[in-house]
Design goal:
The structure is a single chain. The relative contact order is 0.26. By secondary structure, this protein is mainly β. It is globular, with a radius of gyration of 17 Å. About 0% of the residues lie in helices and about 45% in strands. The protein contains no helices and 7 strands.
Length: about 130
């Protein structure tokens, strides 16, 4: 039998996950329209970027922000991404995946893979 104690100032976190579709966004299209809401006003989106002349580099991106007040694009308030796995599917139905652990709640872009299309992602986060 083990006994755990919690002292004042220590916060217990809960790890949850969500699976989201990888979406395509166009210039000027608000991410908010295609995001998945998490907890307490935070949201997440997973999208492909094929172009080289945009704010984002080529790859599959997971973006995480606070949308609770409906107008601001600011750092998440209530959740922290800890890991993500992006699933890719080929035209013949073969599936592969890439996993990335977050650094300080942030992820780098996942690669585009020749012959495969990113289809969805599972994202683990603390709340």
């Amino acid at each position: 039998m083990s006994i755990a104690s919690v002292s004042a100032g220590v916060f217990l976190t809960q790890v949850e996950n969500v699976t989201v579709d990888v979406v395509n966004v166009t210039d000027g299209e608000p991410f908010r329209d295609k995001c998945t809401n998490l907890t307490g006003g935070d949201a997440v989106i997973c999208f492909n970027e094929y172009r080289t002349d945009t704010q984002y580099s080529q790859g599959v991106h997971i973006d995480h922000w606070y949308v609770g007040n409906g107008t601001e694009d600011i750092d998440p308030h209530n959740t922290k991404i800890i890991k993500a796995e992006v699933f890719y599917k080929s035209s013949d139905g073969k599936t592969i995946s890439k996993v990335q652990n977050a650094t300080d709640g942030s992820l780098f872009e996942f690669p585009l893979i020749d012959g495969y299309e990113a289809c969805n992602a599972t994202i683990w986060y603390e709340r």
